[in-house]
Design brief:
single chain; 272 residues; mainly alpha; Fumarase C, Chain B, domain 1; Fumarase C, Chain A, domain 2; 2 domains; two-stranded antiparallel ribbon; two-stranded parallel ribbon
Length: 272
């Protein structure tokens, strides 16, 4: 992610270290499920939980040899588990970890986006009421048409973002599915209880059916909703930017003390 345009809550979700933390959480939950099924004894599960750790450097060192990210991760953790490493990742396939962790991170990201949309809706509503009677020219095809108010424009955007909020909520539900069903998804080396246990602990739904992976129509839907929301925000931003043009100058962004608009032209107040 580009630091300049990344906010900490979202950036932290997609951080490399957080990715491995989630992988470890999934693996340990699978071990807990094995314990619940009586396939791991009390002392073993306690040792696994106590000693399961890794270093990013060690994972990267192993991956340079194996050229396999999940195998490098499980090997790095397994080095600290001794004989109990045989229970770690038992019956699982890489996509159990990759797809379930991706679902969790996309869900967490959706929760941030939903909160941000709700905040934007609050501002748009306030501005719509504040400028209910602020007259401005309406335009069609970029040409002066009939009078409108600035509040009317904000109300239009408010309605659009209400729809985007509902879209994002549906996308969050659509993506909130994990899988712990093993290679090709047939539970040959696992019991369905393990998938149910892990997904419940992660606040995900178990996939009704999967093969090696969670089916990508869920991800396509999620990304299409992000694209729709982004197109709305781009429209709002382009309109606000256009209305700040010198020959129009109907709206203006705040210009903070010490802020500069240009490295060459000190008179400029460029929009951000």
């Amino acid at each position: 992610m580009i630091d300049r345009y990344s906010l900490s809550p979202m950036k932290n979700i997609w951080d490399e270290e957080n990715k491995y933390k989630i992988w470890l959480k999934i693996e340990l939950l699978a071990c807990e499920a094995l314990f619940e099924l009586g396939k791991i004894d009390q002392s073993a599960i306690e040792i696994i939980k106590k000693n399961a750790r890794y270093s990013v450097e060690r994972i990267q060192e192993i991956e340079r040899v194996t050229r396999h990210d999940v195998l490098a991760f499980t090997t790095a953790v397994g080095e600290n588990l001794g004989e109990h490493s045989r229970y770690f990742h038992q019956g699982l396939t890489s996509s159990d970890i990759l797809d379930t962790s991706l679902a969790l991170r996309l869900k967490q990201s959706a929760e941030i986006i939903i909160r941000d949309i709700e905040s934007l809706l609050k501002v748009l509503k306030e501005k719509a009421l504040e400028h209910k009677y602020t007259l401005m020219v309406g335009r069609t095809h970029g040409v002066h048409a009939e009078p409108i108010t600035l509040g009317f424009k904000f109300a239009l955007w408010y309605s659009e973002m209400q729809r985007n909020l509902e879209r994002m909520k549906r996308a969050k539900e659509e993506i909130s599915y994990g899988k712990i069903s093993g290679a090709v998804g047939t539970f040959v080396h696992l019991e369905p209880y393990i998938e149910e246990y892990v997904c419940k602990k992660l606040d995900l739904y178990p996939a009704k059916i999967s093969n090696q992976i969670i089916q990508r129509d869920r991800h396509a839907y999620y990304l299409s909703v992000l694209a729709v929301i982004a197109s709305s925000l781009e429209k709002f931003a382009t309109e606000i930017r256009g209305l700040q043009r010198t020959e129009i100058h109907e709206v203006e962004e705040e210009f903070a003390k010490g802020q500069k608009g240009s490295s060459a032209m000190p008179h400029k107040k460029n929009p951000i």
